[in-house]
Amino acid sequence: MPGFLFTRTIFFLDESLTWRPGPALDEAISFAASVQFEDSFLLIGGYSNRNHESFANVRQFDPSTETWIVRPEKLNGPKISMAAVLVPEDYVNFCHY
User: Which of 6, 88, 90, 94 is the most buried (most CB within 10 A)?
Assistant: First the structure.
């Protein structure tokens, strides 16, 4: 898989319609999905050039510490180039992934 792997992040602030630098990731990742979650957002899956692997990890941005946290939840397998949407928990019984 070709380049475009970054540890740096940038955030879009919808109140001011501006971009600002965010905290670095623990490793270079591309092709991950993101979705708003509570007062934060999740970075889901993705690809890294370390051993040319894709991930099942879910990372959450912690706005109080400006850091990334790897959550204990994982996808059912590595995923790249996907979409993510937050749905009510009672919908999960209808989803087959």
Answer: 6
In Å, how far from its chain's centre is CA 23? 13
pLDDT digits (tens, 9 = 90+) for 52-69: 889 899 999 999 999 999
Q: Which residue has the higher pLDDT, 51 or 58?
A: 58
For 58-63, the CB contacts below 8 A with 24+ separation are 59/25, 61/22, 61/23, 63/39
| Cα–chain center distance at 80 | 11
Quote the CA–CA distance of 7 and 57 in Å, as a whole number.
15
Q: In the chain, where are the structural domains located? A: 9-94
Q: Measured between alpha carbons, how far is 60 from 96 in angstroms, rounded to an integer?
A: 24
**pLDDT(43) > 50:** yes
Give residue-wise pLDDT tens across range 12-23: 888 899 999 999
